[in-house]
Automatic annotation (TrEMBL), chains A, B:
It comes from Nonomuraea montanisoli. PROSITE patterns: ROK. Belongs to the ROK (NagC/XylR) family. It holds the Pfam family HTH_24. This is ROK family protein.
Length: 375, 375
């Protein structure tokens, strides 16, 4: 019952009974006991949204003071922090920026300073902090992940999990999807780099070495531009934001930022349009293969460029749709991300609510402080 | 404890204790009770394989008479049947051929006649038949799958599951893998068609509509040869056995069968070698993207051509290896299938032993006869 409340937030006794499969009478007995012990409390009634007659039902939730969960997302140029209480309400949030050239000690300092500032601003003292989820860019650098986990575990005496921040963002998208039952989803983010996250069969996929969803380094153009990974012609060399801006410049269109790109798109600049369509074709082919492999019900595209460049998205959609055209009942919904910059931190918190079936079998880097049971 | 015996076959009391996490004393008490009730029996001792001194330990197994499980694999030109007892021993097996043009009623008749013949030959009367797994070619034709399930359920009064036979073959490969712990595996079969099966995060993946692993219809050559799926240039148009034979013929090399291909490979025919390398490159690019998506620990290649055409496999291996070269610790093992023609039927039986963690959350077509509990 506590798991239901932790996972789904405030619920009426009838909703709880339906979810746990117990009778209404039994649920009332148990909630009476939990209310008496102060573990849960009545938060409101369903009067507002209630359809039909009858007495409004009380909605119960975990006592927010009984736990806090922190999500931290270190991006290339900023760190986001969210703190949620046990009722799933966000009780503090903030962002701090740093230079892209900033090294890890500096990034960590920025994150920790932000967390302290949030405490001063909101009065949240992290006294009930149960666990911290930290998203970091990149994959597989186990020693860095361990180092980050240790810093947070020592500072807050809480359990810490560390994983790729794009994967966490994909998890957040799956949890916020239009339907309750997205069991197969591909998330792709086009940003300074290109990364992804997968939900397969209702679970966040990690792969055998933690690299599942590394979609930016699929070869899109054999023999193409040199990629930072050492190969040539990766999706990232065609469809990352720097790659798109650079390609426009090489074709004679001055362009330094997403604002410049937006201005060019607004006047339907033919060269820019062509560059975006080429990028969309490369992304679409890669996603077509990934979708043929996984048969997802949703493909989610994230990153600021998604809002700016509809031509790119149209091209992705038509390429993927063609690839899956013969599977008439299998066309996935292809949609922009619902969550924006905070999705990594939200996903990190979601990963802490480990009871989600999406995380069955999930094993990220976990560091536990000796005195605390995880989770 | 019964689950351990069903899943792992004969075990000593110490092995059982280790697997279920109970003390040796408790396990002995429970096995004593089960032996008394005839549910399990002593099958042998570990004397032969025993290292070191000490009294040989008895090995216990489910009483084979307590259940039978049937796997049926309908291919394009033959049906395979395997029957296992509750101790996982194969107690009957056979194959019956039909023309590729045979329609479903004829194929079903061939399968049922084979099953009856096996009974006459072996004395197995299917009296303890608990469940039947049926593999069929192709994907997604739900009404055919339902029809096949009904025929078997009515005939044998047993629970029936029906799924794609290549997916079942992939499951069998994962279960027979070199290590116990293959949680992420891609299986690809190059045959009359090209199909695949996936294990992701320790589970057989189906996708949102049952198409996961449909790797033969990824576009390999944009604008290439017409494929039976309606698209052009699919992997199947380049790397299926008929596609390879046809391409050789078009390049002036007479070739009608895998035997002809083998003869050409044996004399290192340069045109044939080039055709095989082209096919390998197409398969390798597709598998490279699939492997970047899923980060599997193993990629398994099945189909008779795998043994005949090492040049194809070398090309697949080098293409996939290049694609994953920057993930230095993530190179998957790429290997030929361990199981041959019977793998579909073996996988179908494995799917019936539903307790395997590989099948957590697995939902195939399931038909149950009213009088019998499933599973």
């Amino acid at each position: 019952m506590l798991r239901v409340l932790r996972q789904h937030g405030a619920q009426s006794r009838n909703e709880i009974a339906a979810r746990v499969g117990l009778s209404r009478t039994t649920v009332s007995e148990i909630t009476g006991d939990l209310l008496g012990r102060g573990v849960i409390r009545v938060v409101d009634t369903d009067a507002v949204e209630r359809v039909g007659s009858g007495r409004p039902a009380e909605r119960l939730a975990l006592d927010p003071a009984s736990g806090q969960y922190m999500g931290v997302d270190f991006g290339h140029r900023r760190v986001n922090v969210l703190v949620a209480d046990a009722a799933h309400d966000i009780i503090a949030s903030g962002t701090s920026r740093y230079e892209e050239s900033a090294q890890w000690p500096e990034r960590l300092d920025a994150g920790l300073a932000l967390i302290e500032r949030l405490s001063n601003d909101t009065g949240v003292h992290y006294g009930a902090l149960q666990a911290i989820g930290v998203g970091v860019p990149g994959w597989g650098d186990r020693s860095r992940a361990d180092g980050v986990a240790e810093v947070f575990a020592e500072r807050f005496h809480a359990a810490v999990i560390v994983d790729n921040n794009v994967r966490f963002a994909g998890l957040a998208e799956a949890l916020h999807a239009q339907t309750d039952s997205v069991r197969d989803l591909i998330y792709l983010r086009l940003s300074d780099g290109v990364g992804g996250g997968l939900v397969v069969g209702g679970q966040l996929a990690r792969g055998s070495n933690g690299y599942a969803g590394e979609l930016g380094h699929v070869t899109a153009v054999p023999g193409g531009d040199q990629c930072r990974c050492g190969k040539r012609g990766c999706v990232e060399t065609v469809a990352s934001v720097p790659a798109i801006l650079g390609r426009c410049r090489r074709l004679g269109v001055p362009m330094e930022s997403l604002d410049d790109l937006k201005a060019a798109v607004d006047i339907a600049h033919p060269v820019v349009d062509e560059v975006l369509r080429e990028a969309g074709t490369a992304v679409g082919r890669m996603l077509g293969t990934a979708a043929m492999t996984l048969n997802p019900s949703e493909i989610v595209l994230g990153g600021d460029i998604v809002e700016i460049a509809p031509a790119l998205i149209r091209q992705v959609t038509s390429t993927v749709t063609y690839e899956l055209s013969w599977l008439t009942d299998a066309a996935p919904v292809i949609r922009p991300a619902l969550l924006s910059d905070e999705s990594g931190a939200l996903g990190a918190i979601a990963a802490l609510f480990h009871e989600s079936p999406l995380l069955a079998g999930y094993e990220a880097n976990v560091t536990t402080d000796g005195g605390r049971q995880w989770p």
